[in-house]
Amino acid sequence: MSEKISSKTVFTHPVHFLAFGFGSGLSPKAPGTAGTIVAVVLYLLLAQLPLTAYLLMLLMTFAAGIYLCDRSSKLLGVHDHGGIVWDEFVGYWITMLLAPSGWLWIVMGFFLFRLFDILKPFPINILDKHVHGGLGIILDDVLAGIFACICLQLIAFGVAT
To answer: What pTM, to 2 d.p., does this model score?
Structure first.
């Protein structure tokens, strides 16, 4: 993992608090996975939203994420610190766009998103290496979420037919 950041730094600065996923990014092991678990918990509330509101929420959290990830990264002096997990939130919520309801789909979405986020297949790996700043931090997770969403929808479509 990147440079160690104190919990005091995260819990006393609003930008770090949000960028670090309400503290979940402080996990000493697999902070991205810890952040995605928090995203799952929040998804349970967000899943109740009508589609238009869910799409608006995605747009707002993506835009906020560009700022939060960029600002936190600059304040820490570490580009894309492993503890910055707001991008995992947005990526997972994209994964779950129009997902069927139920724990099977929530868990499947979790694993598909983590798989694409960790493996970073083409073109995710290109974005990860060549797009910088807050946009670069969040964009690879957005694309991982899109890939995971497509896979989840294909699985759901296959199950339904």
So the answer is: 0.95
Cα 41 from Cα 139, distance rounded (Å): 22
pLDDT in tens, 97-109: 999 999 999 999 9
Query: What is the CB neighbour count within 10 angstroms for residue 97?
Result: 16
123: preceding bond cis by omega (within 30 degrees) = yes
Rounded to 5 degrees, what are φ and ψ at 20? -90, 20
Q: Token match 């037919």: residue?
A: 161
Q: Are 42 and 30 in contact (CB under 8 A)?
A: no
d(CA 65, CA 136): 11
Q: Which is nearest to 148 in space by CA: 103, 128, 118, 126?
A: 118
Rounded mean pLDDT of 25-30? 95
Is the CB of residue 94 less than 8 Å from the CB of residue 151? no
Let me know: does 83 contact 26? Beta carbons within 8 Å: yes
Q: Is residue 96 a contact partner of residue 37, using CB atoms and an 8 Å limit?
A: no
